[in-house]
Specification:
The structure is a homotetramer. By secondary structure, chain A is mainly alpha-helical. The first copy, chain A, contains 20 helices and six strands. Chain A has helices at about 5-15, 25-35, 35-40, 45-60, 65-85, 95-110, 110-115, 120-155, 175-200, 220-225, 235-240, 245-270, 300-320, 335-360, 365-375, 380-390, 395-410, 420-425, 440-445, 455-470, and strands at about 160-165, 170-175, 205, 230-235, 280, 360-365. In chain A, the strands form three sheets. The first copy, chain A, has a two-stranded antiparallel sheet with strand order 1-2. A two-stranded parallel ribbon of chain A has the order 3-4. Chain A has a two-stranded antiparallel sheet with strand order 5-6. In chain A, strand 3, helix 10 and strand 4 (about 230-235) form a beta-alpha-beta unit.
Amino acid sequence: MSESKDTIDKKNANSMWGGRFSEGPGAVMQEINASIGFDQKMFREDIWGSRAHAAMLAACDIISAGDRDAIIEGLGQVEAEIERGEMTWDPAMEDIHMHIEARLREIVGGAAARLHTARSRNDQVATDFRLWCRGKLDALDGSLKILQGALISQAEKHAVTVMPGFTHLQTAQPVTLGHHLMAYYEMFHRDRGRLADCRARMNECPLGSAALAGTSFPIDRHMTASAMFFDRPTANSLDAVSDRDFALEFLSAISIAGIHLSRIADEIVLWATTPFGFLTLSDKFSTGSSIMPQKRNPDAAELVRAKVGRFVGALNSLLMTMKGLPLAYSKDMQEDKEPVFAAVHDFELCLAAMTGMIDDLKPNAEAMKAAAGGGYSTATDLADWLVRVLGMAFRDAHHVTGEIVKLAEEGGVQLQDLALADMQKIEPRITDLVFSVLSVDASVASRTAFGGTAPDNVKAAVAVAKENLQ
Amino acid sequence: MSESKDTIDKKNANSMWGGRFSEGPGAVMQEINASIGFDQKMFREDIWGSRAHAAMLAACDIISAGDRDAIIEGLGQVEAEIERGEMTWDPAMEDIHMHIEARLREIVGGAAARLHTARSRNDQVATDFRLWCRGKLDALDGSLKILQGALISQAEKHAVTVMPGFTHLQTAQPVTLGHHLMAYYEMFHRDRGRLADCRARMNECPLGSAALAGTSFPIDRHMTASAMFFDRPTANSLDAVSDRDFALEFLSAISIAGIHLSRIADEIVLWATTPFGFLTLSDKFSTGSSIMPQKRNPDAAELVRAKVGRFVGALNSLLMTMKGLPLAYSKDMQEDKEPVFAAVHDFELCLAAMTGMIDDLKPNAEAMKAAAGGGYSTATDLADWLVRVLGMAFRDAHHVTGEIVKLAEEGGVQLQDLALADMQKIEPRITDLVFSVLSVDASVASRTAFGGTAPDNVKAAVAVAKENLQ
Amino acid sequence: MSESKDTIDKKNANSMWGGRFSEGPGAVMQEINASIGFDQKMFREDIWGSRAHAAMLAACDIISAGDRDAIIEGLGQVEAEIERGEMTWDPAMEDIHMHIEARLREIVGGAAARLHTARSRNDQVATDFRLWCRGKLDALDGSLKILQGALISQAEKHAVTVMPGFTHLQTAQPVTLGHHLMAYYEMFHRDRGRLADCRARMNECPLGSAALAGTSFPIDRHMTASAMFFDRPTANSLDAVSDRDFALEFLSAISIAGIHLSRIADEIVLWATTPFGFLTLSDKFSTGSSIMPQKRNPDAAELVRAKVGRFVGALNSLLMTMKGLPLAYSKDMQEDKEPVFAAVHDFELCLAAMTGMIDDLKPNAEAMKAAAGGGYSTATDLADWLVRVLGMAFRDAHHVTGEIVKLAEEGGVQLQDLALADMQKIEPRITDLVFSVLSVDASVASRTAFGGTAPDNVKAAVAVAKENLQ
Amino acid sequence: MSESKDTIDKKNANSMWGGRFSEGPGAVMQEINASIGFDQKMFREDIWGSRAHAAMLAACDIISAGDRDAIIEGLGQVEAEIERGEMTWDPAMEDIHMHIEARLREIVGGAAARLHTARSRNDQVATDFRLWCRGKLDALDGSLKILQGALISQAEKHAVTVMPGFTHLQTAQPVTLGHHLMAYYEMFHRDRGRLADCRARMNECPLGSAALAGTSFPIDRHMTASAMFFDRPTANSLDAVSDRDFALEFLSAISIAGIHLSRIADEIVLWATTPFGFLTLSDKFSTGSSIMPQKRNPDAAELVRAKVGRFVGALNSLLMTMKGLPLAYSKDMQEDKEPVFAAVHDFELCLAAMTGMIDDLKPNAEAMKAAAGGGYSTATDLADWLVRVLGMAFRDAHHVTGEIVKLAEEGGVQLQDLALADMQKIEPRITDLVFSVLSVDASVASRTAFGGTAPDNVKAAVAVAKENLQ
């Protein structure tokens, strides 16, 4: 007649979970708990680890050679199936490890059951994730190298192209575009160093740490480590399964590199404005407007600039997740992968886009040179000349220069267009040799001390860089 | 005979882009630029906005009634197609707005071309995103309310269940489990307040702000605003297209709520440990071990605790992306959606999981009470008695209490098990009335000042809370 | 003869702690544990709370009227002493509460010992910190209002001053400077709303929650709440002592406001560049160069832009600190104050600096107008005219406009300088009425739909804003 | 008669700035612009740089030997004065560089004016800050080493002390306390590696990059670099003055190390709870309660746990500040120092406090062992025995073990207390040899594979660690 209390409760329960979770707690738990949605990305790494583990178990007489061969062949089949898209991903089977293990069991039966000896999911996932990160560290090093190559190539072309050097975004002194681009070469050089250090530090194999305490099986962890090109096995099993430093360090390195990308991207946006007019955007990395056919929007540069937020967000995410976790493995750590996967994906994309933009750079040398010559940008050259040639003290030379700049400003001319006589009214010892430093070309040519903007320096830096990139 | 320079260049170009971008710059640009991969989530909001816009354009005699009807009917068809999964998403067609517009054009022809009058993608996406967020703000308020309901229900059941109250995670004073749970009710109450304030502040309609400057068409922005249940149109077109405060405020509110979730999740993990033993984990939100059938791992609680990292990561991501952007729309802002989508998705999931865990809470009242009685947790009750009954100054009462606790410690007994004579050796005026405050039940019962842990207070708080949730 | 082991151990211990901690563990503990170095800032709030508490205790017959009077008078003396700089801050006495209590005991003796009845440091510090934050919320609301006033005043002056409106930092359509400045008025309006919501939500009094469980003394928490202008006492004692939402919400609001400051600061830096030349920097907020007297660096704007990092840093700091803390009070929470104090200090400073920069804004109207007219910025006006007057569909009008822009570009002229005949070659129905929309002045004047950039709209918005600021 | 408009304006201006800035814009600008409040910390580094620069200028015949000697002697005097606290810090003189230069001019007159040849404040501050960071990197490496020493020493003492190993904070398998502590040794080892890599990467000298473009003076940058023990001069002047990677990388390394500190601190808090009872807190790093003399609050551990928030906050602060800054120097970068100074200060303090806590660790071995034996923690040992001795497949052994655990649970006994006959009912091949692996001592002793928890492994790891620390 009337619904039982139980029925009503069930209904309420269902409505309580709302549409998305209308199936009740089981659906919620499966959705929050299963990692297969993202960790399937590591299927190759998981299979590599299992191959190495099987070979080692056999070498240590823990499983038979027959089992080993069956397992290794079976794993090959599983890998091929996944590559062909034939694996059915099922959230009920939680993660990539269980998917592969279950499929292997279907293929090779009993031998599969022996593969899990002397390991657990805790050391397995730590190994897979390290392998994945290591592969990406290598790939990203390559991408950074290509970006550096693009910078070098443009720097070489523009070793003598003059542009304004800014401080506070105010014209300060002329520099060369080549020198400016080589500043980014240096930044990406440090970025590669950080990635390399991260790789070296993380290249230890957790496999065989088992759940957390190590194992009593007489395994040879050096053998598995070496089979996967790790430098050595990790030294402490508790640390091995609860350490995510490598991911944090990776994200830190990407974040810092992202800052560099955001800076050059910001400059591209700025230089492409009409008032600056320093460059014409490549069609390939900008979008147009049907209504203003001449207009180009620097979309790719803006997106690269924005992405640093994503990198830093990923870093924060994992730092916060790891905060205060007692040893050893806690499920919290499952939240390590998505931020890393997303950041690496976006970082690769940004590097490719920036490489494309640099390759296609179309600087407007005239506009750059004109801007470089404004704002009395060679005033410091004048002051340096007064010091060098007339032997004035630096602070005095500054004062005299200020007076001469004021004179030029009142006359509405640039320094090189002032009459010698006018300058001599302020400082009688000035000779017409001074004109040799007042043009922007003379200015940049003179900055020959190591690291300075002189074209010859730029060419030398390019040569060194080319050698380094070999 | 030999490859042309051009061929070589193309080859190099290809190899430069590597596997993922082997098709060259076009593939890179499409991948970084297209938002259709994620903004398709807003198809209903986009269609809603277009319907409202079409109706308004007709009411203002900017398009004909016939066009309006065709557009609105056509949009209905597009919506149905998308819901049935019939739309083909094509990265070349960038975003959800273009997909819908293009399909509409196929269906209704020329009328579709007139729909875009007096709007642009900049105000359109701002409107869609606000609508999406507003819908989620409402849904999440509902989810928080359900979680509060679960807390209230358990608090009512456990209004008299005694447990240790901790400071520094050291037993300090006995409290009731109901009181403890109601502390979280208060936190989620504030969270709902923050979501409500965010909703009220963001409920202004950007549509009609056009690209950035507003429009010269005689449109009625109040009409579109009202059709989408916005309180009013935004007041400044430049602000309207470049504002993402609503997303930042939403992510802030989620992050703070995430802190609350991390705290209760941490307590569940802690209470479920063997040494604490305060509760038995629900099967529904824990995982077991084939090898240790009695073991339950608090996976869901750990994952909820971890997810706060994701929320805070998303907040940081968008804050950083928005930093220092000049007005008005910049493409950087396209990076606003993914962090919000992901955080909202995970937050919903965490609320559902936490509600399930609270619903299923199986406290071990004996273990809680035993722990509550340890550590001389009623020492402050004794001190308060000395003040209240004997009229001692607070600091003096503290001193006497300290002496009595020392005595109990030396005797290896709890305070309520000390002999009166022993206490009188320290303070002769103590009478046997003192025993009325030395048990944990007496202690909690005595904390009747507003906000205190007394069972009657908890019941009263539950009653108020129930009314609030109506 | 030889040093004893003990002596050696002490030496080692000392050397172990190094210079800074050469006194050993005691020095380390004192330095990490004492908060007096920063919480002395809250001495007025602490004394206010004690006054209210004493008055309430007497009203509830928990202490005598005589004690109350002695305490309140004594507190007045302590406050005066601190204001005169006569208090000696001693890290050994940990925090501001103990300093004031100890000094009060010296002054009034026994009565001071009774003041601590029915409260603890946990509810005391929560009360002090809320009072401090509330005071700053009010002060900052005032500062934001002054900044809004400066924006309104400039917007009114520049309601008709034309400048380029940018998307992607590319000239898109002309807007007015007044409209642009009013966009920031809107942002700061929302910021004030967030601060007000934070204030309303946090305005509950924790005092009387005692250590964590409430109290058995018959206190009147509504009385103390009301004496300190709180809306009500907090409802749950555990929550009251472990809640820092108000600080998190405050820092969120400052961070979002900091984003707005970073945007306008970035624009000031940009507009002050030589290529843009949109404004001349005020001497008061820029620095010069002895060598280039004409040069002005936008230091204040750069620093304001940079400070948003500090705000977001502070927010992250406290979010991370609060993550996963079990109830109730943990010492971790002592790390709440320094980030808030620092962020509030810097935010006040940024608001003052930005107000000064806006007050002193010296726009170069000619440069702005010239830039506004470049890039065929009235192309959308032309398209809109084709729609409005000729009844063309929007997409068709776009196509025709594109053709006309191409024509102008080939001729090297602006749209308004094209011959009618030339336009008619592309679309014969165009009449000379079209010229009424092709100038930048006509363009901005035409954007009269609500929220658009038309001077009349700006004036109306300013009028509304003025009324709101009353 | 009436106040002039000017007077009124001044009044308004004053009231506008409010109390803190009542002196008007000048006070605001000075407060936001001056860095002397914090950069005075780098006075030694600044003087070191000036000494090296003077020596080089003389060696390159840019200044005379007499000037050099006067400058170097004068700098010695300035340094001594600052060390004696005799320097008056004046915000009007902005920064440490100007303070030292001005005082030097007073002392040595004209020679001081020549010191600034071929350098600027931009390369000077970059040099000073690197020197300061490098010094701290070295000091912190020392502090970490001392902390590692403390861990090793305790690990050696507790190589055989058994405790529960946790996953999900559930008892999983027995481990040794020594092994657990050595996990932290490994973490701090990686931290030292990160600091060392940061040091190696940043050890390049920016001095001589001048304002941004390098210099035309024939300086020898290798000489100054070498005089300050830099490995080489920086290669690009634009990069040299605008790079803050070293600070970002430093803060990243501190943040990751802070995560480690937060984990061990959390464990100390947890282990010191009454239910765990794994350790007794040292008096030196805990605080007591006058009312509960037996109570000890783990304040230092909680504060160390909390401080990671500050580290990550500092990292975020600087990342955000650096985002999107165009080259070269911008004033934004002045916001680099305070976050680094504060984080380094707190990190040093945390290391000292943690070292003290480890030194004083008083583990309760009985409680640990009792807890280790609960929860059928040797179930995996049983399963491994079934595999190893009976040759069962891992998954089958798991199943059998699960059955036996169920039996034990039903009987309310631990595994080692089950009768052999009972086990044989489930798996007849089990012999009494099985008991050799069922005790916690046997379990830990058996985990001898590399990295496992066996006491012998711990001792070996300690021996290796000791050698590394030499």
